[in-house]
């Protein structure tokens, strides 16, 4: 029987369903990192920003903040011994978490929180690919869980450009434009567990980095018992929350507040690390 021509073109390139490639693997100063090449937008001055953008243009992300955090973690180990515990609240793809995990191999642990499911997948992948066995990640939103146990957040398009790290889980009075229009009322929503810091029931806490896009006050309030008990050092973004609400919470607890650009550094007056701080206090 002569050979018959094959007419099935279901697997041909011309008929294949195409898929955009947004998440990629990049070699960075942090390590091998999964990041989104669409993670960028520009501000009114035409300046581009985004975690992915910064990695792809400089091979690093906010290295000055990471260096500060590493210095503080080493100091906590110096004064309090091994077993240092750090929280990365708003971890994104893990720029801080991976650097901390590598630094604290054999002497410290990191607990990372990221509410955006797709970004969390990249975070978990980065933890695995960098062999950070002392880093654990949770796909949760942090905040007040006394009334509700879940948060419903708008679904973003991760194949279209936006500064995903600037996404506000809850709408603010003046929400930042991240590169995509977000309709908090009518957009398709994703159900995310809501967790308070106090519910973690930690046995030790040395350091908290918090970048939760306007929810900093709520998250701090959700962890007041932990903060009072362990007096951790805190690096808190105030770009959207503002300085005063953070001061009102932490200064009465005995914290000294130091300016760090869009962040504040809070160190308790009883912490021996305080004598190493040379930046301007507020």
Strand count, sense and barrel status of the largest sheet are: 7 strands, mixed
Distance, first to last CA = 89 Å
Ranges with pLDDT <50 over ≥5 residues? none
- Fraction in helix: 10-25%
* Gross morphology: globular
CATH class: Alpha Beta
List the helices and strands and how they pair.
Elements: E1 23-27, E2 32-36, E3 41-42, E4 48-49, H1 51-58, H2 63-80, E5 84-89, H3 95-103, E6 108-113, H4 117-129, E7 135-138, E8 141-142, E9 150-154, E10 189-195, E11 207-210, H5 216-221, H6 224-230, E12 233-237, H7 243-250, E13 255-260, E14 263-268
Parallel strand pairs: 5-6, 5-11, 6-7, 8-10, 11-12
Antiparallel strand pairs: 1-2, 3-4, 9-10, 12-14, 13-14
Helix pairs in contact: 2-3
Question: What would you say this structure looks like, in words?
Answer:
With about 280 residues, the chain is of the alpha/beta class. It has a single domain, classed as Vaccinia Virus protein VP39 (Rossmann fold, 3-Layer(aba) Sandwich), CATH 3.40.50.150. About 25% of the residues lie in helices and about 25% in strands. It has seven helices and 14 strands. It has helices at about 50-60, 65-80, 95-105, 115-130, 215-220, 225-230, 245-250, and strands at about 25, 30-35, 40, 50, 85-90, 110-115, 135-140, 140, 150-155, 190-195, 205-210, 235, 255-260, 265-270. The strands form four sheets. A seven-stranded mixed beta sheet has the order 7-6-5-11-12-14-13, sandwiched between helices. A three-stranded mixed beta sheet has the order 8-10-9, with no helix packed on it. Strands 1-2 form a two-stranded antiparallel ribbon. Helix 4 links the parallel strand 6 (about 110-115) and strand 7. It starts with about 20 loop residues before the first strand and ends in a 14-residue tail after the last strand. The model has no long low-confidence stretch (mean pLDDT about 95). Keywords: Methyltransferase, Transferase. It holds the Pfam family Methyltransf_21. This is FkbM family methyltransferase.
